[in-house]
Amino acid sequence: MDLSYPPEAEAFRSEVRAWLEDNLPEGWGAPGFQMTAEERAKFDKEWTPKLADGGWICASWPREYGGRGLSIMESVVLNEEFARLNAPMRADFFGDTLVGPTILQWGTEEQKQFFLPKILRGEITWCQGFSEPEAGSDLASLKTRAELDGDEWVINGQKVWTTQAQYADYIFVLCRTDPDAPQHKGISYLLMPMRQEGIEVRPIAQVDGSAEFNEVFFTNARCPRDAVVGGVNNGWQIAMTTLGFERGTSATTGYRRFQKELDHIIELARRSGKLSNPLIRQRLALAWSKVKIMQINGLRTLTATLNKDNLAAGLGATNKMFWSEYHREVMELAIDILGMEGQILTGGGAGDGDGGHTDEEFVPGVGRRHPRHSYPVSALQTGFLFSRSETIWGGTAQIQRNIVAERILGLPKEPRPEQKARAAG
Hints:
Strand content: 5-15%
CATH architecture of the largest domain: Up-down Bundle
Distance between the termini: 49 Å
Oligomer: single chain
CATH class of the largest domain: Mainly Alpha
Radius of gyration: 22 Å
């Protein structure tokens, strides 16, 4: 594992730093920096056009599709510099990071010309339609169906845990297009407009009042026949590409949010006097060591990627499993340090103007939340609640263990339930 970056990557780092210094609000990233709700709204509105004008959105894409054609190392440096200052670097996570690269790799030229410029300019937003009530970890058992009717697909079924569906313009959705084919062979990957009568979105309200997750119901919803990415009945392979982008985009920067959060928790333990407790101190030391392991594993993943080593895919699964379980543990530690205070709602409602919890007080990596006024959670309480989902989305911890076992350790695939039943009988 070579920890040195080539000179051209470091030269590019200087360019990125200079741009950020010129374009971020004065004082951004400094201790105590805050923005009012109005200032944040103005920043959000102006920031995406600035990113687009600077060429930073999807900068790794080829120049012919609006990117800058960055190398892997330049892309890593770009991520690192934005992460260093906690500066937003995407117009729309699902568009920039998941479906955009998927279209770039698998889409037709017509799909690329239609969708990619809109993604780059932040003109359309996306959501991901994969999971179903009975098809989460066993995604291949999905039942949402798409049937051809002339020049259109007609979609019926349900998706669940669909993040940001209530705001999305499009959904990249997995549908069963051949019910008679084996599970993995009869699925297609469709790009479908969300704003139509045949789609109903029901937000799933969480205990803190936020509702990023949704149920989505399709009743004779429609999309064009040519909206299939990668060919009819080839959706499983396309979906695995998308999940690969989701799990591998922050190899050298993912640990940073956990480091910032842990620093805050350590300071909390110091102020409360809990740092002298040997059990708390030991748990904090273990958490610190795990954050360092994340940093090292990120560099290992980068090295494997640069060397085009097949180990990179397995390391992505290892890292996802590791950080999601770590975060659940460290947030439980934070609540333990808070003690009984952790059972009290100590935050102010978003936009209360009372000097308490606002949109800007968020746990790194969780992002800004919008708790309801009647349930004013603090930043750490929000982090604790959110961490419960992290071992599930993007591939459950159990599924990640199977990937590690099969792709890194070379163990045989786990038998399916029907195979186990036959063996037992």
